[in-house]
Amino acid sequence: TMLPLLLLLLPAAHAIVKVQYRPALTQSPPLEGLTTASTFVLDQPRCVFEQYGNADIWLVVALDKAASTFNNTAGPGTPETAFQGFPDTVPAYMTLNATLANYPCPKPAGDITVLRVGSETSCAQEEARPTCNGPLPGPGPYRVKFLALEGSEPVAETDWSVPITLREAKSPSSISTTDRGHSAGMIAITTILSILFAILLAGLVAMLVFWGKPESVTVRRYNTHHVYDQPAARL
Amino acid sequence: MAKSDDCVHILQGLLVFGNVVIGMCGIALTAECIYFVSNPHGLYPLLKATENNDIYAAAWIGIFVGLALFALSILGIIGVIKASRTLLLVYIVLMLITFAFEMASCITAATHRDSLTPSLFLKQMLEKYKKSEPASNSDKEVTKTWDELMLQNHCCGVLGPSDWQEYTSAFRLTHSDADYPWPRKCCVLDAQGLPVNLDGCKLGVPGYYNSNGCYDAISGPVNTHAWGVAWFGFAILCWTFCVLLGTMFYWSRIEY
Lengths: 235, 256
What we know:
The complex is a heterodimer of chains A (about 240) and B (about 260).
Chain A: H1 2-14, E1 17-18, E2 40-43, E3 56-63, E4 92-99, E5 114-117, E6 142-150, E7 153-157, H2 184-211, H3 226-229
Parallel strand pairs in A: 1-7
Antiparallel strand pairs in A: 2-5, 3-4, 3-6, 6-7
Chain B: H1 2-37, H2 44-49, H3 54-82, H4 85-114, H5 118-128, H6 137-153, H7 162-166, H8 170-174, H9 198-203, H10 215-253
Helix pairs in contact in B: 1-3, 1-10, 3-4, 3-10, 4-10
């Protein structure tokens, strides 16, 4: 009779509690750097792991397609979950170790409580730091979840997040600088000035042609009283 | 005879008045163009780097045209008062040459203003800002100008800090995305020139970084410059056109 009882107890001892929480990108306050090319920002899991005061809460970051195959018993800080091997040899790594003391509940209003995934650049290549929070190597998509471990036993986990895709940068040579329209002002200036200049040139030509026929313009310099009566005689 | 004499006197008076206005406008044009050439907003390196500093050429032409207009207006006044055909002919020909140069200056300023789009400055900033060796002199000037621009106008990038995220750049080659999503100059800085809150700046928390782009700070002075040269020159030329037509008519009426 002891044996069936023991058998009943064993699965219960190994069951991981699924906490009703889905990690998500920070919605408030709006952040310009919510997702960059190699980092993204999550809300801290406040008021989520209240019953696990003794546990270490880890963040698991996985490639979207590797999320479903992640084994909760994989330990942090091992080569199977080392950041430095991600994503080629390691499909999911564990980082951002914290305890419940780091996530006090309730969250004070006005505080910005976020986790920036990918902010540690100094240890990205250091094999000796497998739990490094290093910059993500590509645009993803990635999925994350929080896992609470007591000792080396997983005791609680959250849901996987929705897939998170990071920004991809284009090359500046794709910026087109050649399609510039001409503003109305420039067209107005050009046409009006050209017309005015043409009129002036025509006037100058007329003047010089005019000069070549002095007889028709010659008027006597002296003004006599007679001219009063014949205004038409003056050109 | 008195009537036509009066007409002639009125025409003379109008022409003298017209020339006085041209002389004063010439001085004003020279003053305005000297102001623009003296680079009051420090944007000259950016324009030089786009190989598109014809707006400065237009301003330089404006300086000399302004002085020429002043000198020719004096010649014109003397010619009208003395009713001398030769003087007025010289005046008209030289004025036409000056007219042509000023026309070129106006059209150049207006055309090249149109080519200074945000895309042009964006591409130049991405390719040259904080470019590591080999960096030419123009690259260093561009970097210095952008640093001062972002510092003094509390702005970031051309359209915003997302410029640095949407495109790769020379800056990105030497500054990793995780440490520098955008340059430090985009952060709100304290009196010592250090970011008030570096993490806040990297995250993009409102209040710790400059979220607006610098394009307005660039295009404002450049527009004033270009339209100042182009439209003021246009106005002077329209007035000059009328005075020249009047002078030609007067010249043809002068007793030989």
